């Protein structure tokens, strides 16, 4: 059996459009295929079938990122830790009204000549900075992040939405999501450190989704 080179021509409704590709055929001559509007996978399968090959199984495309980044709330862990939790909560109040009209009293306490900083959300106390035996803690940014998100979500306890964090430190953001949207985002976003997350007191990462070491 002799193989010869031939051309595959893609035809439109008019004259044959000669964007050709060299291929090996079992017989000579040109094969004219109609111009398809179907996905490329169907065209590949059609060409493969000419040689007796089965369907081409292409890998499934990853799901699209479902997060609406235009709805991000800009925050900053450093600013929160610098006695800024009440101010950030006040600025967020208008958006909170859409999800939970029930108010939650938030107040700050500053002591130890400004070195101690605590916040109350209702009756719950959150210590951001404290001085023990003359030494101030070093995790104030993390504590402030946890305190702010826990206070906001205490306000949302009867809502279908929660307030999740994105990134951290000076690049901290917040986003209102349902549990379904939160789960969908974690399935769709491949890099763990880009996931939405819920700050908590579990050290050393305080709830942040650290990337798994590939090594």
The helix/strand order is: EEEHEHHEEEEEHEEH
Give a count of the beta strands, DSSP E runs of length 2 or more.
Answer: 11
- Please give the count of helices: 5
C-alpha Rg (nearest Å): 29 Å
Percent helix range? 25-40%
Query: Which regions are unreliable across 5 or more consecutive residues at pLDDT < 50?
Result: 1-37
**Class inferred from helices and paired strands:** alpha+beta
What amount of the residues lies in strands?
25-35%
Biggest β-sheet description:
3 strands, mixed
What strand order characterises the main sheet?
2-1-3
Shape: elongated
First-residue to last-residue Cα separation: 51 Å
- Mean of pLDDT: 81
Structure in words:
By secondary structure, the protein is α+β, with helices and mostly antiparallel strands. Helices cover 26% and strands 27% of the residues. The protein contains five helices and eleven strands. The strands form four sheets. A three-stranded mixed beta sheet has the order 2-1-3, with no helix packed on it. Helix 3 packs parallel to helix 4 (140-155). The radius of gyration is 29 Å and the shape is elongated. The protein starts with a strand and ends in a 27-residue tail after the last helix.
Q: Which key terms come to mind for this protein?
A:
single chain; 215 residues; alpha+beta; 3-stranded mixed beta sheet; 3-stranded antiparallel beta sheet; 5 helices
Architecture blueprint of SSEs:
Layout lengths: L3 E8 L4 E10 L5 E4 L5 H10 L23 E2 L2 H5 L3 H15 L6 E6 L4 E6 L2 E6 L1 E2 L2 E2 L3 H16 L5 E6 L6 E6 H10 L27
Parallel strand pairs: 1-3
Antiparallel strand pairs: 1-2, 4-11, 5-6, 6-7, 8-9, 10-11
Helix pairs in contact: 3-4
């Amino acid at each position: 059996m002799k193989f010869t080179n031939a051309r595959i021509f893609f035809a439109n409704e008019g004259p044959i459009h000669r964007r050709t590709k060299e291929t090996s055929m079992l017989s000579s001559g040109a094969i004219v295929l109609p111009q398809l509007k179907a996905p490329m996978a169907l065209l590949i399968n059609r060409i493969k079938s000419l040689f007796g090959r089965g369907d081409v199984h292409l890998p499934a495309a990853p799901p699209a990122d479902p997060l609406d980044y235009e709805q991000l709330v800009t925050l900053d862990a450093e600013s929160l830790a610098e006695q800024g939790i009440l101010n950030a909560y006040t600025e967020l109040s208008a958006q909170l009204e859409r999800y939970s009209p029930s108010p939650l009293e938030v107040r700050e306490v500053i002591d130890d000549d400004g070195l101690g900083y605590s916040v109350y959300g209702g009756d719950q106390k959150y210590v951001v900075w404290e001085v023990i035996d003359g030494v101030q803690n070093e995790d104030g940014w993390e504590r402030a992040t946890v305190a702010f998100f826990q206070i906001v979500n205490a306000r949302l306890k009867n809502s279908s939405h929660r307030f999740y964090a994105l990134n951290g430190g000076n690049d901290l953001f917040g986003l209102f999501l349902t549990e379904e949207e939160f789960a969908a985002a974690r399935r769709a976003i491949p890099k763990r450190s880009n996931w939405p997350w819920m700050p908590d007191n579990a050290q050393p990462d305080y709830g942040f989704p650290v990337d798994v070491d590939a090594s």
